[in-house]
Amino acid sequence: MKKQLLLTAMAVLCLSVAGFSQTKGTNALSFGVNVTTDKTNENLPTESTTKNSSFSLGYGYFIQDNSKIGVELSYGTNKYNFSGTAQETKSYGGNVSYQRYFPLFKTLFAYAGGKAAYTYGKLEESNTQSISNQDYTSNQYAVGAYGGITWFLSKRFALETNLLSADILYSEINQSTTNTTSTFYTNKRTTFNFKSEGFINNLGFKIYVLF
Q1: Residue 73 belongs to a domain with what CATH number?
Q2: What's the pTM value of the predicted model, to 2 decimals?
């Protein structure tokens, strides 16, 4: 009898901990990191390397049980090296979002949501064989839907990954080039398209601190 009571009490405690993490009024701080490196023709004279790094910091608030709104700031770099040419694109952005959580098994939840985002990008180029300098900036606006899995490790911590996303993008690109002959030109391009990412594509993780 005592053993049964103990097991029941433990089960209730686990459920209460799981429930606390998604209840109305809970605050959530998020930290996200995603780093990938690709190399082609490794150990050959024509070897190229591309490294993508992204970092995010966000705040969320559960307006209802299992429903969260949030804001997030992000910073990312894309570094490309090939035969004396080095390019680095830096991006700065932010977004507002809404997420709805659905219980799967104990502390494991699926989520679906939407967001509106803005990203500013700037290209810096160094070419030892080039006589020109290039200046490149971009502004991108996006509205999209996304979904994934969240594991509430305890009442204070959660781990989350994004598995699916679809975005409508509008981007504006400004590009100018100068060279030793004093030639100068600018190029401004706008695009409007629909982008989707499949299952487990560009997989990244976020850590939440709940309080």
Answers
A1: 2.40.160.20
A2: 0.72
